């Protein structure tokens, strides 16, 4: 059996760190990252203000990402996922493969929406998000006003779309909480879901 979960987040919300820590704790677990599917800078649209529109689905090779996810689901054992169980895992977990897909624009893309067993969304308030963004180095680098002019408005747009979709079941996580708290909560939640699958 395959269990797929998504970790979606505002920029610098902590999704990649959370996904990597979960992978170490969960049995037969693999990660696919949306960041690996960005188009080269020359193919990313520029708006009238000169901002490169990276925080939009058009900036990504989403077809390639969907194909990779489907291929993984069809044959998780051939994906290179480590099948040795963590010492804390029970014997009856060995037959379930877990895929974590992490990114920032996952729930607004229709071809992916029926794949998930569980959806998580990490949120941050404006000031904390801007502070964290300012500590990161991006290629290409953020231009002046880019966060306020493109990144934050796009986050709010997609988050509002998500909240308006009543059929979308999402677990919202407070990104200001410690990594330990977030990890503990999500791990427990996943284990509950895996137990339901086995029933």
Automatic annotation (TrEMBL):
Please provide the record's keywords in A-Z order. ATP-binding, Kinase, Magnesium, Metal-binding, Nucleotide-binding, Pyridine nucleotide biosynthesis, Transferase
InterPro entries the record matches? P-loop_NTPase (IPR027417)
Presence of the UniProt keyword Transferase in the record: yes
| Known pathway | Cofactor biosynthesis; NAD(+) biosynthesis
Gene Ontology molecular function, alphabetical? ATP binding; metal ion binding; nicotinate riboside kinase activity; ribosylnicotinamide kinase activity
One GO term of the cellular component aspect?
cytosol
Top-level taxonomic group: Eukaryota
| Reactions catalysed according to its record | beta-nicotinamide D-riboside + ATP = beta-nicotinamide D-ribonucleotide + ADP + H(+); beta-D-ribosylnicotinate + ATP = nicotinate beta-D-ribonucleotide + ADP + H(+)
One GO BP annotation is:
pyridine nucleotide biosynthetic process
Write out the similarity annotation: Belongs to the uridine kinase family. NRK subfamily.
The protein in question is named NRK1 kinase
Q: Which organism is it from?
A: Neopipo cinnamomea
């Amino acid at each position: 059996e395959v269990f797929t979960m998504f970790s979606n987040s505002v920029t610098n919300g902590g999704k990649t760190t959370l996904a990597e820590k979960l992978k170490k704790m969960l049995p037969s677990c693999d990660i696919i990252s949306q960041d690996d599917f960005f188009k080269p800078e020359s193919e990313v649209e520029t708006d009238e203000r000169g901002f490169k529109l990276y925080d939009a689905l058009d900036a990504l090779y989403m077809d390639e990402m969907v194909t990779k996810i489907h291929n993984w689901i069809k044959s998780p054992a051939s994906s290179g996922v480590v099948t040795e169980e963590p010492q804390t895992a029970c014997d009856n977990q060995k037959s379930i493969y877990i895929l974590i897909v992490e990114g920032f624009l996952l729930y607004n893309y229709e071809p992916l929406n029926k794949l998930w067993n569980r959806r998580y969304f990490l949120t941050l308030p404006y000031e904390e998000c801007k502070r964290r963004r300012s500590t990161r180095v991006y290629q290409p680098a953020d231009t002046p006003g880019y966060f306020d002019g493109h990144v934050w408005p796009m986050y709010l747009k997609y988050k509002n779309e998500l909240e308006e979709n009543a059929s979308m079941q999402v677990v919202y996580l407070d990104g200001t909480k410690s990594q330990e708290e977030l990890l503990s909560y999500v791990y427990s939640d996943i284990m509950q879901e895996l137990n339901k699958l086995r029933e």
